[in-house]
């Protein structure tokens, strides 16, 4: 109970931080300042991380009244008085739905493989046997699917979400897909009278568990504002990028860079070893310098041990590179580095590494070196 209360408190304060910061930093109320620094340590940094020109944070409904669990739950009802559906509870969808449930939201889940819903049902989620039934019983439905085909099937295939959508409802697709797929899903949703937002996320399994994702949204702005408190439960920042397709494009460009970085890092690890250096020292040097990225220090040590515990499946990284190359094609931009990286991920997939973490791309390089 204590855990779920503090989780709710943090989640509820986050969407409303502009006013809560003002109230809690009142010099006449030093104990309130203590409460803020104890319970919302991430507020200052997340505040900075949301570029004001892109964000449309909702205003606060919090008051200076001492916070009790009843007030927290009332506040949640005020910032989001609705039922939430979640379609697809794989590596990402599961912790995202879990954070909504822990924050006190009324969440109904569906997954193609039903057993993956069980841990969520145990902590209070409801279950419906099809995307259609989830959408018809919820106000807002999120989907987190593997790829364009599954996103389409779940959105407007047989018994898809669109067949349960009506005016007043909203569909938020957080899967990583290409812009054309997203637009097609948006058109089918809007044809029902409902609203559509694409909102792919940057950040992997751990950021999803920690509620630290970055949402790259585009589409209906009123829906964006309506779901902002929910995005703030699951993420640390959110960007509103305008027309449907822009969120997908931003996500693909980011993951194109990430895939190339991982391939290049793999090459460096293998070269360092070959010339007699300790690759663990290379990881340390890279991490301390200007090219340091959390990805290198978190994944590097296990890569040296040839272990690839899955956070971001390699097959999804290859899908993102493929889609990014398609995006570049639409504007006739040459992307030779991403194209070379994509070839490596394809080799890794042919070595049956698709379900391993994308850092397993190093195995494709090892195989090439042995040729
Ligand atoms: N993992 C990561 O670090 C990140 C992933 N992403 C993106 O998020 C999305 C989900 O990724 P992740 O959770 O890692 O992947 P998973 O492979 O763990 O989950 C994929 C989900 O899609 C479902 N699915 C796949 N095919 C179908 C289908 N034909 N019909 C219905 N459902 C289907 C799966 O159902 P089932 O359980 O039955 O297989 C599962 O729920 C992807 O687009 C990925 O690129 C974005 C940011 C980070
Ligand atoms: O899409 C993957 C990620 O880490 O972001």
TrEMBL record:
User: What are the top taxonomic ranks of the organism?
Assistant: Eukaryota, Viridiplantae, Streptophyta, Embryophyta, Tracheophyta
- List, alphabetically, the InterPro entries matched: 6-PGluconate_DH-like_C_sf, 6PGD_dom2, 6PGDH_NADP-bd, HIBADH-like_NADP-bd, HIBADH-related_NP60_sf, NAD(P)-bd_dom_sf
Q: What does this protein do?
A: Catalyzes the NADPH-dependent reduction of glyoxylate to glycolate as well as succinic semialdehyde (SSA) to gamma-hydroxybutyrate in vitro. May function in redox homeostasis and play a role in oxidative stress tolerance by detoxifying glyoxylate and SSA generated in glycolate metabolism and GABA metabolism, respectively.
List, for all copies, the residue spans of the domain called 3-hydroxyisobutyrate dehydrogenase-like NAD-binding.
Answer: 245-364
The family classification in the record reads: Belongs to the HIBADH-related family. NP60 subfamily.
GO molecular function term, any single one: NADP binding
Q: Which domain of life is it from?
A: Eukaryota
In this chain the 6-phosphogluconate dehydrogenase NADP-binding domain maps to: 83-242
Q: Which GO terms describe its cellular component?
A: chloroplast
Q: Which organism is it from?
A: Aristolochia fimbriata (White veined hardy Dutchman's pipe vine)
What name does the UniProt record give this protein? Answer: Glyoxylate/succinic semialdehyde reductase 2, chloroplastic
Tell me the keywords, alphabetical order: NAD, NADP, Oxidoreductase, Stress response
Q: Which reaction does it catalyse?
A: 4-hydroxybutanoate + NADP(+) = succinate semialdehyde + NADPH + H(+); glycolate + NADP(+) = glyoxylate + NADPH + H(+)
